[in-house]
Structure of GNAT family N-acetyltransferase:
Amino acid sequence: MIRRVRPAEDAAAICHIYNHYITDTVVTFENDPLERETMQLRIERIAARFPYLVYEQDGMVLGYCYAATWRNRAAYDHTVETTIYLDSNWTGRGIGYELYQELVAELRSSDFHVAVASITLPNTQSVALHEKFGFRKVAHFTEVGNKFGK
């Protein structure tokens, strides 16, 4: 089931999913795992203005996605940056597609005009997912981040 996030209820599961990507991958450029309280505050701030969705199965959050501010200038008010993370044990099962389908539908029915995704490469699964929804590569930033010596 895909539903709106419930910050207090979902923060621990979302934190668990995201912390894997912090500690074990270069997908996110954060270095330090987050505490549940910090994640809950982030969720509340984002969900107050933007769609924030979770994929729940048998009472477990298996993934989440959201849209958020892309840049902090008035001219960008109709542009969002999208984010999606899945529990590492549940990738490749179509959950990401279902989540993104719902997010994109919500964005299209709102006053947002452009959605931007930033993908750390290589990440063939994320690139393929975004291409299915019509995203196209418009820029490639080389060596702008450094994590795990990469």
The longest helix spans residues 7-24. The chain has a mean pLDDT of 96. Residues 65 and 100 are 7 Å apart (CA to CA). DSSP finds four helices and five strands in the chain.
